[in-house]
Design brief:
346 residues; alpha/beta; Quinone Oxidoreductase, Chain A, domain 1; Rossmann fold; 2 domains; seven-stranded mixed β-sheet; globular; binds NADP nicotinamide-adenine-dinucleotide phosphate; binds zinc ion; metal-binding
Amino acid sequence: MPTVKAYAAPSATGELISTTIERRDVGPHDVLIDIKFAGICHSDIHTVRGDWGPQQYPLAPGHEIAGIVSEVGSDVTRHKVGDRVGVGCMVNSCGECANCDAGEEQYCLKGNTGTYGAMDRDGTITQGGYSSHVVVTENFVVNIPDALELDVAAPLLCAGITTFSPLHHWGAGPGKNVAVVGLGGLGHMAVKIAHAMGATVTVLSQSLKKQEDGLRLGADHYYATSDQNTFTDLAGSFDLIINTVSAVIDINAFLQLLKLDGALVSVGAPAEPLPVQAFSLIGARRTFAGSSIGGIKETQEMLDFCAEHGIGAEIEVIPASKINDAYERVLASDVRYRFVIDTATL
Ligand code: NAP
Ligand code: ZN
């Protein structure tokens, strides 16, 4: 079993530290990836801090992985040495249930295997992308098109697919009014992708301090949710609202912004409940929904879509020694718009 460099959390409260972790030997269907960049997702912070439940430590997070294939198993057909590839939030699923059959492995009826902090097939706990190398079964490895640099592609593996999937599913496109709540890692990808799909895009941010950026990224309109006039001015305006906020927000206030038959889709995953009044839905046949990342086929479609439209993430590349500072800045909504770790600095 190869031992590789990583950054890992020693506990729910301790800072991440430089360490080593074990990777499994490359099996017949496995791909060994030399990781070049790993994005920092707010889910990494929720997970290592135990927001979503207890974890086993040390835990190396990271599910926005971009790198180069450096070895393939004897039966691998989808990838070869030298390929530019990505790995997102899951590294396996049962492959047999109705949802896996439908290409929706993220909704595997037996539970998908998360890229970190999950029980792997061999009974070990998976370790994520804040690391120099990872071994992944070939079906969960996607190709990064040549038109995308690896650093700006890394965040697409979670932030990109998590916003692309509901935008696509709920029909964002020409003639549709789409609002994005929260302009962070997921939010800025939602703006870029919804704009490229042809929708009219409005950002609903806590303040106007990122307005210039939002409009540059592709938003048509930008409002501050700290201003109560926003909720009266925009009442009944949107076909689709994508909520990317990592904390609890007043969902009922946002539901009032939907048109008849509009949908509010929460991809943000705070630890606490998001209470909904029945009348917020009944009043205009509205839907309150959730969405989890996207399937592997859809992830490849998203990468191809982004390459075609020249869409990468807006990133701040950091050395591994700055991971803990980056966590604090993400928690303070001080990110423009994704931190990406240069794994050469591990
Ligand atoms: P992020 O970069 O921290 O962005 C979240 C944004 O939410 C912030 O930039 C901020 O935007 C806004 N926000 C933060 N705290 C707020 C508060 N108290 N009230 C109102 N707005 C607030 O996080 P991210 O990486 O995009 O992740 C966002 C959420 O999605 C997290 O909960 C993460 O776990 C979840 N997630 C879900 C999936 C999925 O499959 N469903 C996948 C990945 C991530 P403004 O400054 O513009 O207001
Ligand atoms: Zn993520």
